[in-house]
Amino acid sequence: MRDVTLHAGIPVKPVYGPEDLAGRDAARDLGRPGEYPFTRGIHPHMYRDRLWTMRQYIGFGTPAETNARFKYLMAHGQDALNVAFDLPTQLGLDSDDQRAEGEVGRVGMAIDTLADMEEAFAGIPLDRVSVSLTINGMAAPITAMYYAVAGKQGAAADRVVTTPQNDILKEFVARGTWIYPVEPSLRLVGDLIEFSARRYPRSNPVSVCGYHIREAGCTTAQEMAYGLAIAAAYIEMMLARGMSVDEFAPRISFNFTCWGKIFEEVGKFRAGRRLYARMLPRWDQYANEHFLAGIQSLCLSPDHVPRLDDVNRFLRPLTGFQAKAVSGYLPAFLFFDCLRNREFPTTITIRRSDQLDYLPEPDIFHDIAGHVPMHTDRHFAETLVRFGQCAHTAASIVGGIRDE
Q1: Are 66 and 60 a contacting pair, CB within 8 Å?
Q2: What is the DSSP code string of 281-325?
């Protein structure tokens, strides 16, 4: 009989039974959906009460071209936007900079001025549409432009919902589009978190990304461990600036991958939520438990599946989609707008909530999530702690980046 090992290095036994749950306290470790420690989900009724948000990761060419694409998708049922910026914009380069040659508008839209941002969102009411901005090193100026556009539209600050990624530590760890050294980069992250928390209460001014770290080669457990450690680093930074946990932590969001073995992904998310819920009281034991699970988003990318054909690349990520649903995860469902046949994924993936006839019934996911074998997330939690030591690695991550 061949051995089976999960991506996280966890060996899988042929058969599991009650003995594998010895010492397990269901009330302490599992709980009920919407209650501490949020193992079974962050809302009491999950998908029966509210379906997940659906959005494509989009942006290409000029602001005008991207604006046309925004409107096309919204006309076909998309209810939120996730914006891609080209590499020169991500690196703070103007489109006419010699270093930007050959890259302008290629992997996202080019933004050089406030006028560009106004053109990109012309005719899109920013007090009614949630917009994610996939930007990090330039998150502060790009988000400032976005707030300015919303203001010019007459949108009240408390009605603006946006999520700038603003996770510079994962850029140092895995992705590489950082501009400034560690300390000034972190200061900009903190400035945006503080300003947004106090002026734009519905914004999510940082989205902690384990996604890119896993895409760079780490395991599922390491992905979650890095994510929790980076979140801890930002929390400690904001506390050092004089803010309280309640002022900013409720709007910290997370972005993780979801592909591979279904129950491994289920265990990853369930264990991650439980560990995050147990981390936060170390900073504020009286913190509101409602936000301990964090706001979650998820990337399902066709890039990790074989490039056979568009239909196959659409169907394969649905395995990851099912895993996130069974785990009690409430994400923004992101399907990259990069397939060869643009009309196919648009007409199938962008559907209104009452037209999701291509997926299993969402009503069953809430029930299934309560009956996933408890040993799955228990073993995952143990492995996660062993790999990352959770929040205790926060200082070492920042120190290691600084030393590099």
Answers
A1: yes
A2: GGT-TTS-GGGTT-EEEEEE-GGGS--S-HHHHHHTHHHHHHHHH
Average pLDDT, the chain: 78
Residue 133 pairs with which residues in a beta bridge? 83, 164
pLDDT band with cut points at 50, 70 and 90 for residue 293? very low
Do 296 and 261 meet the contact criterion of CB atoms below 8 Å apart? Answer: no
pLDDT digits (tens, 9 = 90+) for 324-364: 555 555 554 454 444 434 444 444 444 433 344 444 444 44
Average pLDDT value for residue range 112-139: 97
Residues ≥6 apart with Cβ < 8 Å to 134: 57, 82, 83, 84, 85, 108, 165
Strands (E), 74-151: 80-84, 130-134
Which of 323, 319, 177, 166 minimizes the C-alpha distance to 255?
A: 166
Cis check: omega of the bond before 37, within 30 degrees of 0: yes
| Angle formed by the axes of helices 317-326 and 262-279, nearest 10° | 40
For residues 269 and 324, the answer to whether their CB atoms sit within 8 Å is yes
In terms of C-beta density within 10 A (0-12 exposed, 13-18 middle, 19 or more buried), how is residue 2 classed? Answer: exposed
Nearest Cα to 281, choosing from 235, 227, 229, 222? Answer: 235
